[in-house]
Write a structure and sequence with these properties.
Elements lengths: L15 H13 L24 E4 L8 E5 L1 H9 L6 E5 L2 E5 L5 E2 L4 E5 L3 E5 L6 E8 L2 E6 L2 E3 L15 E8 L2 E6 L2 E3 L4 E6 L2 E7 L2 E3 L4 E5 L2 E7 L2 E3 L8 E5 L7 E7 L2 E3 L6 E3 L3 E7 L2 E3 L6 E4 L4 E4 L2 E3 L6 E4 L5 E4 L2 E3 L3 H4 L9 E4 L13 E3 L7 E2 L1 E5 L1
Parallel strand pairs: 1-3, 2-4, 3-6, 4-7, 5-8, 6-9, 7-10, 8-11, 9-12, 10-13, 11-14, 12-15, 13-16, 14-17, 15-18, 16-19, 17-20, 18-21, 19-22, 20-23, 21-24, 22-25, 23-26, 24-27, 25-28, 26-29, 27-30, 28-31, 29-33, 30-34, 31-35
Antiparallel strand pairs: 32-35
Length: about 375
């Protein structure tokens, strides 16, 4: 073996929180300064099963100079793994990827990107393409480095949005971990999960400046998202940080989103749509979104607890279209509905209110909208400041 075939380039777990803080600071520190995430211990994602064989993409012809097309070389390294799987390492460098051909991962493998490794999409004009394709496989881990889409140079055919050009597409797969990686400037979603996928863990990623969503969760179950950032989504609707929206007639169930920073998205911070159930939003910071902080549309229950929901242009939380079975408690709301009140930087101590009230100052209805067709929702004790 040559180069670092024998090495597994895996980021240490202790570096995960530092990675997120540094990546967040790069995105916004110039204008907004750094913002601390909720104080929770970093989640340690599961290690998926795989063999001990290692491969280095440089030994299969990858150049990593930002000029050569390295798609075939990276795929060759993946395909060379035995049936027991193993590790494919990508050293520092910029590797151009033809997303119309895709890099397809296989079962029982870790794709390990060095801290200085960038997978960069070549400019295309197709309606659907993926940089990394995780399709009908199991026990897959992707870790480290960066993925950069082609939104800055994409060529559009008149009349099409090309919104299905994703950074990472996970379809029909199980036991998948995506961690310690920065995804940016995708023409569609940074990450999209669907096709009856299950047991998918996203931990310590940054998905930013994508056109459609930072993260889409479609037909799937048991999806966990921890310690991550979803920001600056803008370009083609829905334009959310996270959109949980199964295509009809499919469903999504058992989703946890915890300790994430979801901010400056063109529409809603988190959108929870019909045929979705058992969604937990816990200890997130959801701020400066142009729509709602959190919007549920016909969704079937979950928990919205202990979040900071701040400075969103519409309501902090919206429950609409017969959304039911949600428990909302322990959240701090501040300066939402900025389209009416403007952005304020007051540090007034929030008031404590159980249930909803139109007589308090501020009114809870400045922060939370619940339409009359919604039912069986529990609004517990929350904290409000304007």
């Amino acid at each position: 073996m040559n180069l670092a075939d024998e090495q597994t380039l895996r980021l240490p777990e202790t570096a995960r929180r530092d990675f997120l803080k540094k990546s967040s600071a790069v995105a916004v520190s110039v204008v907004f300064g750094s913002v601390a995430l909720p104080a929770l211990a970093a989640y340690v994602p599961p290690t998926r099963s795989r063999g001990t064989t290692t491969r280095n993409v440089r030994n299969y012809g990858a150049v990593g100079d930002g000029v050569h097309d390295d798609t075939a070389a990276i795929q060759a390294a993946i395909n060379s793994l035995p049936s027991t799987g193993g590790v494919v390492s990508i050293p520092a460098g910029t590797y151009l990827v033809d997303t119309t051909k895709r890099i397809s991962l296989r079962s029982l493998m870790l794709l390990s990107l060095a801290p200085g490794a960038v997978l960069k999409a070549k400019t295309s004009s197709v309606r659907r393409a993926y940089l990394l394709n995780v399709n009908n496989v199991s026990d897959v881990e992707i870790a480290g480095g960066q993925i950069v889409g082609d939104r800055d140079t994409h060529r559009y055919v008149t009349g099409y949005t090309d919104e299905w050009n994703h950074g990472v597409a996970i379809n029909g797969s199980k036991r998948v971990t995506l961690r310690d990686i920065r995804v940016s400037k995708c023409t569609g979603d940074g990450v999209c999960i669907g096709g009856s996928s299950s047991d998918v863990v996203i931990a310590n990623i940054v998905s930013t400046q994508c056109r459609r969503q930072g993260l889409s969760i479609t037909q799937s179950t048991n999806v966990k998202v921890y310690d991550s950032e979803f920001s600056y989504t803008q370009g083609t609707k829905p334009e959310c940080g996270i959109d949980i929206e199964p295509d009809e007639p499919y469903s999504v169930s058992n989703v946890v989103i915890e300790n994430c920073w979801i901010h400056h998205n063109k529409a809603n911070g988190v959108q929870i749509y019909k045929r979705t159930s058992a969604v937990t939003l816990r200890a997130n910071k959801i701020e400066y979104n142009t729509g709602f902080g959190v919007l549920a549309i016909g969704a079937g229950g979950g928990s919205i607890v202990s979040n900071q929901i701040l400075h969103n242009r519409l309501y902090g939380i919206g429950l609409r279209a017969a959304s039911h079975g949600f428990s909302v408690s322990g959240n701090t709301f501040r300066n939402n509905k900025t389209m009416f009140f403007g952005v304020k930087t007051s540090t007034a101590t929030p008031i404590r209110v159980t249930g909803t009230s139109t007589s308090t100052s501020p009114k809870t209805t400045w922060h939370m909208e619940i339409t009359s067709d919604c039912y069986s929702n529990s609004i517990g004790t929350n904290y409000y400041a304007q």
